[in-house]
Amino acid sequence: MEKSNSLSTLFKSPFLHATFYLTAAGFLCRLLGFFYRIFLSNTIGAEGMGIYELIFPIYGLCHAISVSPIQTAISKFTAEESRGNGCINTRRTLHAGLFLSFSLSCFLAFLVWSGSDFIARHFLFESRCRSLLKIMAVSLPLSSIHSCISGYYYGIKKAGIPSLSQLTEQIVRVSSVYLLITVAQTNQLPITPIFAVYGLLLGEAASVLFSTLSICLTKNTDSKRATAIWPMQLKNILFLAIPLSLNRLMLTFFQSIESVSIPTSLRLYGMNRTTALETYGVFTGMSMHFILFPAAITNSLAVMLLPAVSEAQSQKNNNRISHMASTSLRFCLTIGILFTGIFLVYGEDMGTVVFHNSLAGSYITTLSWLCPFLYVSTTIGSILNGLGKTKTTFFHNMLSLCLRILFILVLVPRMGMYGYLLGILVSQLLLMMLHLYSCQKQILLTFSVFSDIIKPIFCTAAALLITKFLSIRILQVYFSFSPLIELGIHGVSVIFLFFAILYLEHVRK
C-alpha cells in the first residue's frame, strides 16, 4: 500500500509532468531540427552552414546579457514565491523581469544593427555576415519576451506553455524557411544563409504571439496579499541576474572566441577560406546536432531541476535535493552510455546516409565518447546553480573553455579539426569531474560503479549485437528499405532492446 501511494505521488508530481512536457517538446523540436539541418545542408551547402553558424556567438553574447540571467531569476523567484498554496508576487516578478529584459535587448539590438558591418569584418572576419546580423538583431527583443514568460511558467512548474511555445517556434521556423527557399528556387534566385536567419526571426515572432496570448488568458496567480512593488522586484532580479549575467557574458565571450578561432586555426593548418568554413559548417551544423539530439531529455531535466532545487533548498529539504541529484546523475550516465554505443557503431553511416558527408560521420564517431560527460555536466551544473553555487559553475566552465581554446591554438594548426575534437573530450571530462566534486561537497550523491556504469555498458553492447544479428539474418534478407529508413530502424531497435534488457535484469534481480 505504501509503495502504491509513493508511485501515485510520483506520477502526480508537477516536476515530473513539467519534465515530461519539456522532453516531449524537445524531442519533437530536435526531430524537426534534424530534418531542417538536412534540408539546409543540401540547399545552402557546407560553406553556407559555416557562415550561418558564425552569427550565433554574437547572438549568444546578447542573450547572455539581456535574456538568460533574467529568465533564470524569474524562474527561481517564482518557484520560491509559489511554494505551498501561496502565489504572492509571481506575476509581479514576471512584469519586472520582462520590462528589464525587453529594455536591455532593444538597446543591444540597436547596437548590433548599427555596428553590423564592423562586427562582421573585424570580429567574425566574414563580411557576408553583415546582413545576417541585422536580421538577427531584430529577433533579440522578441526572444526576451518569450524567454521571460517561459521562465515564469518553469517557476510555477507548468511547463506545458513553454513546451508548446518552443514547438510553435520550431514549426514556424522550419516551414517558413522551406517556403522561402522554395519560392526562391522557383524564381531562380540565389540561395543564401539569409533565408535561415529570416526563419529564426519568424519563429521568434510566432513564439512571442503564442506566449503572450497564453499569459493573457492565464488566471493571475498573485494573491490579494501581494506585497511586492516594482522597485523591490527589480532589485531582487538584478541582485541575482547581474552576477549570472557577468558569468554568462564571460563564458559566452570566450565561447565566441572559440567559435571564431576555429576557421582561423584551420587556415593555419593549410586549408583555404572556403574549405575552413565548410569544415566548420560540417562540425557545428551537422555532427554536433546528432550528439546533442539525446540532450532533449537531459536539458529538460536541467531546466526543471534549477527551480526545484531552489524550492527544496528554501524548505531546507536536503534529502529531496540529494535524491533528485543522485537520480539525475544515474539517469544521465545511462542515457550517455547508450548513445555513446549508438554513435560509435552507426556514426559513419549517419554522416554518409543523412548528410551525404563522410567527414560528418567521422566527427560523430569521434564525439560519441562525449555523451556521458556532456549530459552529466549539464544536469549537475544546473543543480549547483539551484544551490546558489553560480560562482563555482562559472569557474569550472571557464577552466573548460580555456582548455578548449588552448587546444584550438596549439593543436588545430598541427592536427586540423581532430585537435579540437580531442580538446572537447578532455575539457568536458574535466568539467564533469569538477561539477561532481563540488556537488558531492554540498549534498550526498549515491552512485554504484556496477549498476550505473558496467550494467548500462553491458546492456548497450547486447542491444547492438542483437540488432546487428537480426539485421543480417532478417532485415537485409527479407526486406528492402532505403538506407535512411534502415538506419532509423536500427537506432530505434537498439534503444528498445537496451531498455528491455535493463528492465529484465532489474526484474531478475
The chain-level structural class is: mainly alpha
**Helix fraction bin:** over 70%
What is the number of beta strands?
Answer: 0
Question: What distance lies between the first and last C-alpha atoms, to the nearest angstrom?
Answer: 22 Å
Q: What's the rounded overall pLDDT mean?
A: 79
- Rg, rounded, reads 23 Å
Q: How large a portion of the residues is in β-strands, by DSSP E?
A: under 5%
Task: Note down, in words, how this protein is organized.
With 509 residues, this protein is mainly alpha-helical. The protein contains 21 helices and no strands. It has helices spanning 2-11, 14-43, 45-54, 56-66, 68-81, 90-114, 116-122, 130-155, 160-186, 194-217, 230-269, 273-292, 295-314, 318-354, 358-367, 371-386, 390-410, 412-415, 417-442, 449-478, 483-508. It is globular and about 70 Å long.
